[in-house]
Description:
With 165 residues, the chain is α/β, with parallel strands linked by helices. The protein is 53% helix and 13% strand. It is built from 8 helices and 4 strands. The protein has a 4-stranded mixed beta sheet with strand order 3-2-1-4, sandwiched between helices. The radius of gyration is 15 Å and the shape is globular.
Amino acid sequence: MGAIRWLKHLCAADWLRWRQFPRPVLAAIGQVVGEQEKRHDGELRFVVEGGLSPARLFRGMHSRARAVELFGVLRVWDTEHNSGVLIYVLLADRAVEILADRGIQACVGNPVWERICGEMRGHFSAGEFELGSAHGIRAISDVLAAHFPAVGSNPNELPDKPLVL
């Protein structure tokens, strides 16, 4: 693993996290999540991490493996309709990962998620973190609304507020 990656994760992670996702941006993202979840029976969980821990870096962990780990730890898989979706942003690697629970993944293939990740990364590259996040959340909600439209009561099973690690 390269020294530059280590430096990004260990030295710039906190700075990146609060510079690119300050409190007002996080509040706006949480609001968009809450609004969009009214359209479908899916549950969205937005997580931003500045950088990985030294132990994870030493093991060679990358964004996809970390997203899988968080998917389990945060219990995104534990929704009534098996329709949880994790949106994970790893700033040090400029990575965006979307993981969907088995209920929605059975209906939607990886190319859809990869397209949305690419669009989010494009916004992030332009410094548009709030816009890119909102765009990704809305695009995911379009997919969820097509496969899991809101019917009857729609309890909020996962927090709308983004998690910052």
